[in-house]
Amino acid sequence: MEILDMTDIKKRWKERVHAALLEIAAQASPAGTAAPEIGLDAVVAEFPPKPELGDIGFPMFSYAKLLRKNPAAIAQEMEKRLAGASAEASEGSAKAVGPYLNVFFDRGATSAEILMRGEDAGWNASRPMAGRKVMIEFSCPNTNKPLHLGHLRNNILGESLSRITAAAGAEVRKVNLINDRGIHICKSMLAYQVYGGGRSPEDEGLKSDHFVGKYYVMFNTLKAEDPTAEARAQELLRRWEAGDPEVMELWKTMNKWAVDGIKTTDARQGGGFDQYYFESLTYMKGKDEVLDGLKRGIFYREEDGSVWVNLEDIGLDRKVLLRKDGTSIYITQDIGTAIYRHGDWPFEQLIYVVASEQQYHFKALFEILKRLGYEWAKNLYHLAYGLVNLPSGRMKTREGTVVDADDMIDELAALAEKEIAAKGRDASVGDVKAVAEKVALGALHYYLLQTSPTKDMLYDPEQSLSFTGNTGPYIQYMGARASSILRKYEQGEGNAAAGKISLDKLSSDADWALIRRLASFPEALELAARAKEPSVMAAYAHDVAADFSTWYRDNPVLTSPDPDLSASRVALVKSVKATLQAVCGMLCIPFLEVM
RNA sequence: GCGUUCGUAGCUCAGCUGGAUAGAGCGACGGACUUCGAAUCCGUAGGUCGCAGGUUCGAUUCCUGUCGGACGCACCA
């Protein structure tokens, strides 16, 4: 069977509508005069507010003036014109509804396509971003302390966006830039030298990144005891830059502890990277580029020897690129790193997932790369995201300190475990701890992704885990319910095995509501990928789960007396499950067969 | 002060390139389990989309101003 792609059907209808409009326009204009121009882009399609109005709609308002007709009349004429069109039956039909021209999909053809999902692992054939190479940078931790709540949002945004972009057909490369050098690193090293006594994380029974973080905090203790602490840290940095063997040895050891621990947390979230960059290896890059730009007159040198760029013409400031002593600063490194990466893997687009406090920095960075003449610089994108706040109270740690990522997940898992016990599900789920961890991650990830990245958000752990409503666990629960039905079917319950799948059995409005939702998957995916908005997929996941929940309450699957009806519904449940699995995968919400 | 960004129901959030009666969830109130898992479902109440102008046939969406919050404006990263 030929696979129907709803996105394509929509596009083809758009073209038909466009063609018909041109015909009307040509007819309406007096002989000898040019027909008014209507671009294909001027044809907009949207979803009618109620399903009975149609599946997609085209408002006719904007052509009224051009065609000197009222929108309703245009819609009428469009309907007549398109009725006879040689559109294949499977493409549906168009009907005038007031000032709108609405298209009704052919239910049978759509259903047939949807039912294939359950049987075909490669059902997602939509590839709107095919052929594109997209590099996505996220996480970028410092190696002086463990990840915190903000990193969890960063990680999940980056990971989810990567998966969505890949699902949309692009080739994706996830990269992480480890900030493993600098004064802050030296502070934890110094504190360890003073207080560590050569102990290892194992000796203290701490996760290795938490161990390093402990000494970073202890630097404050040192500062209170020793007024020269800051100076000593600076001295350590100088020795590091000089390659002092003793300092390098300590640095390597502590960095490994930090990075190993951080990687464990990344893996816990389900993420990972295709390539790691280390600031200690890249921070020298960029200087040559700046000097080259200076030679070409893109930058200028002040009397003290420092090198600057003037971005005032685009509403930014003057920025320093090289200090008067000739050393690099932050933005210089980023210039170098971007160029270096493009050499590594010639991306078409590079997306930086970085907190919105750095918006200014990235504007400047992108502009500088553009001025240096890099063609790809126009495709650099800063995915800025806001802060994660917690409701004041229990979860908020003392002022000034941040909520640790591992602690947060631990706490969520403990709550989930309690809930499983409270529901009396311990026996059914088997490995309670493993399931609780997955529920915790589903809760956390969905909650973090449902909000648009740009906004600051309030993370309420209790609410995210509440298991009722717009939450990750709700979506997981619907996945588990679907799985449960299919499991029983496999075990021979009901009479579906004796029936055969019939599209006629899935033609009710209730069926159509669910099928239409499943059919809009390619649109949701394309929008999410194009707009770089995992929240679109999150909303879609919830919609699918909610529609399924409504549907299966009134549509018994295995207990229906009609074998054909039963078999058809089993097929539909399979495609619901396949869809939920795919979408949950993109959102890093673990799919659970049982919970 | 300048710049960026956010402001939608009591609370947390959606609202796709401007379009048909602004949607979910929580909370409140009222219903539905001898029925495939009630971690569910159904219903009711609740909004002058911060405010004021403007563009448009049409504005929550675009523009200007204004109020309020967040962030940024280092030879830090």
Concise synopsis of the structure shown:
The protein has helices at residues 6-28, 64-67, 71-83, 107-115, 149-167, 183-195, 201-204, 208-225, 229-241, 245-269, 279-282, 287-295, 330-344, 359-371, 405-422, 426-429, 432-450, 461-464, 472-490, 509-519, 521-531, 534-554, 563-587, and strands spanning 56-59, 93-97, 100-104, 133-137, 171-178, 275-278, 300-301, 307-310, 318-322, 349-355, 380-385, 388-389, 457-458. The chain has 595 residues and is of the alpha/beta class.
Q: Give Rg in angstroms.
A: 29 Å
Q: What is the makeup of the main sheet?
A: 5 strands, parallel
Helix content: 40-55%
> What is the CATH domain class of the domain at 443-587?
Mainly Alpha
Stated plainly, the CATH topology of the domain at 443-587 is called Isoleucyl-tRNA Synthetase, Domain 1
Our estimate of the beta-strand percent is: 5-15%
Structural class: alpha/beta
Keywords, please?
single chain; 595 residues; alpha/beta; Gyrase A, domain 2; Isoleucyl-tRNA Synthetase, Domain 1; 5-stranded parallel sheet; 3-stranded antiparallel sheet; 23 helices; 53% helix; flat; RNA-binding
